[in-house]
Amino acid sequence: MKLSIAAVFFFLVATFAADAATRIKDITDLKGIRTNQLVGYGLVVGLNGTGDTLRNTPFTQQSVQAMLDRMGVNIRGSKYEPRTRNVAAVMVTAELPAFASKGSRFDVNVSSIGDAKSLAGGSLVLTSLTGADQKIYAVAQGQITISGYLAKGAAESITSGIPTRGRIPNGAIVEQDAPGAFDESMPLEFELRNPDFMTAVRIMDVINDFSKGRFGMPIARARDWQSVMIRKPGGILSSRLLAELGELEVEPDQSARVVIDERTGTIVIGSEVKISTVAVAHGTITVRVTETPQVSQPLPFSEGGQTVVVPDTQVDVNEAGGNVAIVKGASLRELVSALNKMGLKPLGIIAILQTLKTAGALQAELVVQ
Questions:
Q1: pTM, two decimal places
Q2: I need a surface site. Which of 46, 50, 141, 293 has the fewest CB within 10 A?
Q3: What top-level class would CATH report for the domain 21-32+182-250?
């Protein structure tokens, strides 16, 4: 079977991931510690004729006029209205890290909202970033880095990636401390990123085994399938306790799930997926219709004859595949082996998995993206 590189990679990841232990800090978050989303509106200048058309984007023109007014340049009412295409209106988005303090820096994303063709070579003018509470937490400014490009001539253009979206590494400076604080009175509770009762119980057992040797008593309790509560022993700082617990390794359990991306042909099958015994036949029918029109001309010196086009249609039907195979996937390895023996391509595997789910033979959740 010829699988895409992505499909083979994810098959291997799904096969070996179940046997690998993971640190607690990599699969959980501490309750109460979170990032905050910020947003702002600004202008990008210095574009080489790839910015907004001011005639078609009045908000960009108004923003340019307002910016110049603040700098003491008045162009309102002038007959020489700006027609430059070196400016673009953008939305600036970012995530304010938890416990960020004044003066610290973080990355921002810049996205065009007008009809600009590319942000390559542009610089973001000082832009305020506000949170959901409408307070200004940071300001952003700097040179934009983009991963795409745009090249065009009189009759042809080439675009790679998305040139109207970019990033400014460390482009924002915190002006107000992030909300929230970490102190010794704060309750300690791990929240699983992928909730599961088995994983929560395993985390509790690993922490208690460690704490019995370290503190002489158990300190963890699994409250539900998402939360594991920690009782802090005396004589140790919360930061040190979390650092030690975060390095403990646990093998997370995972639900039986199959994820399919029909656009790219990528298939991810979890290690817990099971298939009931079924017979599967897969084949495709290809119908090819060929039109070969023939020209019919009248005989020489004939009266009333006309030249006409006579249609000539050929229809070929080709049915490929159609072999019947017994699929009894007691495990992921056997399922992949059975599909390989059928000689299927990714699209064929996707069709079979969807049909198996409809028939009730796929004992897993099927997610189609």
A1: 0.65
A2: 293
A3: alpha beta
